[in-house]
Design brief:
Blueprint (H helix, E strand, L loop, with lengths): L8 E7 L2 E8 L6 E4 L10 H6 L6 E5 L15 H15 L2 E6 L1 H10 L5 E7 L11 H9 L3 H12 L4 H8 L3 H8 L3 H10 L4 H4 L6 E6 L8 H11 L4 E5 L6 H4 L1 H18 L1
Parallel strand pairs: 3-4, 3-5, 5-6, 6-7, 7-8
Antiparallel strand pairs: 1-2, 2-4
Helix pairs in contact: 2-3, 4-5, 4-8, 5-7
Keywords: Hydrolase
Protein name: Hydrolase
GO molecular function, one term: hydrolase activity
Length: 272
């Protein structure tokens, strides 16, 4: 089924009793489907979406665990997310696919043997091992209802930010937005660490593939080292480096990231 919505708003898909809700920026042509990672939802990606200079419709998925989509559910795993994404791709018919971080892992896995994917762009995909020692601490904090501690842990123990950075972040309007996004963190990180990406199959992806790396993360754990594994598995990929950026370009440099995403789509269209 082709995507035909012409007005901005929301579209819901349904799979196995779960709602998968997407925000839509209307346009013409093949849709661009964005898949955010942890600590992010469609709302946090609006600055990037607004800056993407393409005529295409842009659809941003609220993955499971993000209102108004459904909960993660029992038996949650990366494979569940991949099947969710494949379902949406089936409904769309064809799409350019972009994923960030955990969303990039999901996007690459969903692109395998998938004729609906016209191109795949991945910004710093993550894979196992990914901070496995932090998962029990996250689970304790979330089980206790201490989402402030969960946000602190993901920033300090996973992303490597200083306590001073987190203290300043806590004084900003972003903090109350981040708290509910932390609720699924333990299950999401556990899923990443339980999943073996099909890296040996990535070189057989036939659509144009683009990898995006923030230069501040190059060769550094956890994001740069994870990126290196995916880059080695994708020798055919075009590489875009974002100078002076780390893992959060969607927050810190949305226009630069939007330009990189548009360039990947233009390149894919030129190759067809």
């Amino acid at each position: 089924m082709a995507f035909t919505q012409s007005q901005p708003g929301r579209i819901d898909y349904h799979r196995a009793g779960t709602t998968l809700s997407c925000e839509v920026r209307p346009g013409t042509g093949t849709p661009l489907l964005l898949v955010p990672g942890v600590m992010a939802d469609a709302a946090t990606w609006r600055p990037v979406v607004d800056a993407i200079d393409l005529p295409n419709p842009v659809i941003t998925l609220n993955r499971r665990g993000r209102v108004p989509s459904g909960a993660l559910g029992t038996g949650y795993s990366v494979d569940v997310e991949v099947v969710d994404l494949r379902h949406i791709l089936d409904e769309l018919g064809h799409a350019h696919l972009f994923g960030w971080s955990y969303g990039a892992l999901i996007a690459l896995e969903a692109a395998l043997d998938n004729p609906h994917v016209q191109s795949a762009t991945a910004y710093e995909p993550v894979g196992r091992p990914f901070a496995p020692d932090v998962v029990p601490h996250l689970r304790r904090a979330i089980t206790a209802g201490d989402l402030d501690q969960a946000v602190t842990l993901i920033n300090t123990e996973v992303s490597g930010f200083s306590a001073e950075y987190v203290a300043e972040l806590r004084r900003t309007p972003a903090w109350p937005i981040l708290r509910p996004l932390a609720a699924p963190l333990a299950d999401e990180l556990a899923a990443i660490n339980s999943h073996q990406p099909a890296l040996d199959r990535y070189r057989h992806l036939e659509m144009p593939v683009t990898l995006i790396l923030g230069t501040l993360n190059e060769n550094l754990a956890p994001y740069g080292t994870a990126f290196a594994s995916f880059a080695a598995a994708l020798p055919q990929a075009n590489l875009i480096r974002l100078p002076g950026q780390g893992h959060l370009a969607h927050v810190e440099a949305p226009t630069d990231l939007a330009r990189a995403i548009a360039a990947a789509v233009h390149r894919a269209d030129a190759d067809r």
